[in-house]
Structure formats: structure tokens, C-alpha cells
Amino acid sequence: MNTLRVTSRQPHPPAVAFVARSGTGKTTLVETLIGEMRRRGYRVGALKHDAHRFEIDRPGKDSARFTAAGAEVMVLVSDDTVAMVQKPEQPPRLDRVLREWFTDLDLVLVEGYKTSDLPKIEVHRTSLGKTLLCRGEKNDPHLLAVASDGPPDEFTELDVPLLDLENPAAIADFLEESFLKFE
Q: 25, 139, 143, 148: which sits with the fewest CB atoms below 10 Å from its CB?
């Protein structure tokens, strides 16, 4: 069994990446886990890696006009929301994003970043008939567990825990034990 544990000496809160092929339910699982961890009293952040370009500014709005004019950073603030738009010359490093934008949290749930060195839980749906991303051809040493609706076909014995995708409370228990309970 993998015994990788995140310690409090990291420069950012513990983070775990949920990785999977498209259509497996990563977003739904992360959304459910955020609510479950919040109910347990934890401060939780979420980070989504988008491989496609996205625009947060709406054309014609002041914020989009500032960005289009060349502002390198544009922050939009209301009484209950803060949003930042930054146009970096190079993609920001994951550890920098976690360190600078996820302060004072107990845990960060990350969707994506499948090639990162973050601890990972792979989401798997047997009905899709797809192989695991983190085992087989690419044996990712950072894989902590597989959350699935059944055992992956290509493995009779998995070298990491198999979590029940239909039982988010059990997955939250695993997150607590792995990241939030220190000796």
C-alpha cells in the first residue's frame, strides 16, 4: 500500500489531484467532496486545470476593457466575491498557485494536473471500459487510490486502495486520514 502523507512543512496547504479520463465524473465527485469536507468543519479550496483557453471577462465590461488595454493583473471585487484575471507570459507553476492563492485552508481539491507530482486519486467508471491513466503504461508513483464504481478490468490486484465512487463519505474519510490527521 502507498503510504505517502503530506506534512504541515509544505509551503502550501495539502492538495490532492483528482484525475481521470473525460466523462468519469471528476467534477461531480470534487463538488460533493467539497460539501462533505465543509460539513466536517474543514476549510477547503478547489483548483481546476483547464487544458483549453477560457475567458472570465465578458466582452464590453469594464474588467475586459482593462485586460484588453494591457493590464497584466485585473482584480474585480464586490462585497462577497473577488476575482483576478492575470495574463502571464508563461503558465504559472502549480506550487506557486497553491502557495499564493490557497492560504489559510486545510485542504485543496484539485481537478486535473494529471502529470503533476501531487498526490492523486484516479476516478474510474467501469462502464466506460477505459484503462487507468496512472497504472499500466504510465505507472504514476503519486497515485494514492482509485475511486471507482467497480474494480478496474485490467487489474486483478491494485497496489493502492480501491475506494467506492458511490460513497463520497468514505472518500472523505480517506482524505481526512491521508491529509488532515497528523501524528
A: 139
**pTM across the whole model:** 0.84
Interacting residues of 92 by C-beta distance below 8 A, sequence separation 6+? 86
Q: How far apart are CA 3 and CA 40, in angstroms?
A: 23
Q: Are 20 and 101 in contact (CB under 8 A)?
A: no
What superfamily does domain 15-54+89-180 belong to in CATH?
A: P-loop containing nucleotide triphosphate hydrolases (3.40.50.300)
Q: What is the dihedral of CA 49, 106, 175, 38, to 10 degrees?
A: -90
**Type of residue at 19:** V
Taking only the tens place, the pLDDT of each residue in 69-82 is 888 888 888 899 88
Classified as helix, coil or strand, 102 is coil
pLDDT tens digits along 49-69: 876 666 676 788 888 889 888
Whether residue 2 contacts residue 144, with contact meaning beta carbons closer than 8 Å, is answered with yes
Residue type, 109: L
Cα gap 137→155, rounded to integer Å: 13
The single-letter DSSP state of residue 128 is: G
Q: Distance from first CA to last CA of the chain, Å, rounded?
A: 19
Q: Is residue 121 a contact partner of residue 24, using CB atoms and an 8 Å limit?
A: no
